[in-house]
Design a protein that fits this description.
- 50% of the residues lie in helices and 13% in strands.
- With 515 residues, the chain is of the alpha/beta class.
- The strands form four sheets. Strands 1, 2, 3, 4, 8, 12 and 13 form a seven-stranded parallel beta sheet that branches. The chain has a four-stranded antiparallel beta sheet with strand order 6-5-7-9, covered by helices on one side. A three-stranded mixed beta sheet has the order 15-14-16, covered by helices on one side.
- Helix 1 links the parallel strand 2 and strand 3.
- The chain is elongated and about 90 Å long.
- Bound molecules: 5'-O-[(L-methionyl)-sulphamoyl]adenosine.
């Protein structure tokens, strides 16, 4: 069975900003981590291309919605994920036939089972959310609470899904599976919401046509959220490739922003229950990146492009920063000052300098051939133990709990421990003594530091793959141990894997000084 992780599929009305990249990088780190555990993994992302929001954007630019989507996907979204080293296994677009046909089949099935009926609806609709709002939640009686823009009153004949009949079963599922919705705050919010009672859900629109037609009544298109949620099934072979579906389904983790939690934790599981499909393992709601106390967004003109930051800090530091600085699940603010401070102290000083100092000393004192640890004692044992502890803590935090900040904290505590060890042992002083005892000590210190770095390279590979690769090559590990991607997390703590005698070279600086 594959460990299957999804991101939300993004609306392509605009180019991606930091908030979108935040979730996609988190999913990439999580899936790289599991690959490095040796598991088979499926990482899915994609784009949500139907609905009024996209249609209006395309109209405003004087092109067809399909042309608009094609352009944005090819020129903005896919290139950004490549730039950020996102290793997704698939990219689904909701305008692809592999999706649209299966969505029609799914909805037809629900109709045939009597889960869908025709009715009419009037209510306030937010086009930015693509969602009917409840009158009570509007700000000043007319503004969407998320977008702070006026809602539109819609009145139309719609098809409805009998969502109201699923409340009890959903509550039972949340009860029996306490980890189904994370973090706990998100879970509580959903449980409370469902306890208040669910209303049936309008799942079609007839006032515009940019969507997938309702198969039995093509004057209607399927509501964009029903269409969108089904990407998680259509992309892994639902209704088309049973073998692949069986190997992948259900998702282990749906990563979502907290604003789209109800769709994923209420509507989506109800749709699956209605059609007899297994429910996902977990829905994890991440917080928002904030600007001036508001959710960062292009429509508020606060959307910063990830490239503005990667140009300055590099891709690896970018991948690291947001996951390290903001506890996953909480909101967080971004600032250049904070990013620059962490870059300099954690990445350049603690980590980068350690790597370059060790390589330089092996070069200087041993002509670049890694010496054996001739007289390892308690100080060295403490480093080996520290690595074991870091591996265990990071594996649990990142791999199991999606606590990226905690996991990275554990790895960087270990990096600081190794720095402390070098300051205490002061190999540059030991080197001045040419006695055999001193030389044995010097060899032991440098072996210990290099071996510690081997472990760090493996642990940081899912987060900062390019930097880990450089370190891996500089330690001579590529030749001795093979590709970094094949190193298992569980082996990272096996002390002594790096054989003495490998050729250590001083590669490029891992994190150059900032301008
Ligand atoms: N298309 C729907 C999702 C369908 S999933 C079946 C959608 N798209 S979106 O492009 O508007 O948002 C996609 C994701 O980006 C959401 O999870 C949203 O929370 C996230 N973010 C958008 N702005 C954000 C921040 N400022 N901070 C963090 N994430 C935010 O909703």
């Amino acid at each position: 069975m594959a460990f299957y992780v999804s991101t939300p599929i993004y609306y392509v009305n605009d180019a991606p900003h930091l908030g979108h990249a935040y979730t996609t990088v988190a999913g990439d780190v999580l899936t790289r981590w599991h690959r490095q555990r040796g598991e088979s993994v499926w990482y899915l992302t994609g784009t949500d291309e139907h609905g009024q929001k996209i249609m209006r954007t395309a109209e405003a630019h004087g092109v067809s919605p399909q042309e608009w989507c094609d352009k944005l996907v090819e020129e903005a979204w896919k290139p950004l994920w490549k730039h950020l080293e996102i290793a997704n296994d698939d990219f689904i677009r909701t305008t692809e036939p592999r999706h649209t046909q299966r969505v029609q089949e799914f909805v037809q099935d629900l109709y045939d089972k009597g889960e869908i009926y025709k009715g009419s609806y009037t209510g306030p609709y937010c086009v930015s959310c693509e969602e009917y709002k409840v009158v009570g939640e509007l700000l000043e009686g007319e503004l969407c609470p998320i977008h702070k823009r006026p809602v539109e009153w819609l009145e139309e004949d719609n098809y409805f899904f009998k969502l109201s009949e699923y409340g009890e079963r959903l509550l039972e599922h949340y009860d029996a599976n306490p980890d189904f919705i994370q973090p706990a705050s998100a879970r509580n919010e959903v449980v409370q919401f469902v306890r208040q009672g669910l209303q049936d859900l309008s799942i079609s629109r007839s006032t515009f046509d940019w969507g997938i037609p309702i198969p039995w009544d093509p004057k209607h298109v399927i509501y964009v959220w029903i269409d969108a949620l089904l990407n998680y099934a259509t992309a892994v072979g639902y209704g088309s490739d049973q073998a692949k579906f069986d190997q992948t389904w259900p998702a282990d983790v749906h990563l979502v922003g907290k604003d789209i939690l109800r769709f994923h934790a209420v509507i989506w599981p109800a749709m699956l229950l209605a059609n007899g499909l297994r429910l996902p393992g977990r829905v994890f709601a991440n917080g928002w990146l904030m600007v001036g106390g508001e959710k960062m967004s292009k429509s508020n003109l606060t959307g910063i492009s990830p490239r503005q930051l990667t140009e300055h800090f590099g891709v690896d530091a970018y991948r690291y920063y947001f996951l390290r600085a903001i506890p996953f699940g909480q909101d967080g603010a971004f600032s250049w000052e904070d990013f620059a401070a962490r870059y300099t102290s954690e990445l350049a000083n603690d980590y980068g300098n350690l790597a370059s100092r060790v390589a330089a000393m092996v070069g200087k004192y041993f002509d670049g051939a890694l010496p054996a640890a001739a007289d390892a004692g308690p100080a060295e044992q403490a480093i080996a133990d520290g690595l074991s502890a870091a591996v265990a803590a990071a594996d649990k935090a990142i791999g199991d709990n999606l606590d990226f900040a905690g996991g990275l904290g554990a790895v960087f505590d270990f990096v600081r421990q190794v720095n402390g060890y070098l300051s205490d042992q002061a190999p540059w002083k030991v080197a001045k003594d040419e006695s055999p005892q001193a030389q044995a000590r010097l060899a032991t210190i440098l072996y210990t530091a290099a071996e510690a770095l081997r472990g760090v390279a493996v642990l940081l590979n899912p987060v900062m793959p390019a930097t880990s690769e450089r370190l891996w090559v500089s330690l001579g590990a590529e030749v001795a141990l093979g590709a970094l991607a094949d190193q298992r997390i569980s082996e990272a703590a096996d002390w002594g894997r790096l054989p003495a005698g490998v050729s250590v070279t001083k590669g490029e600086v891992l994190f150059p000084r900032l301008d």
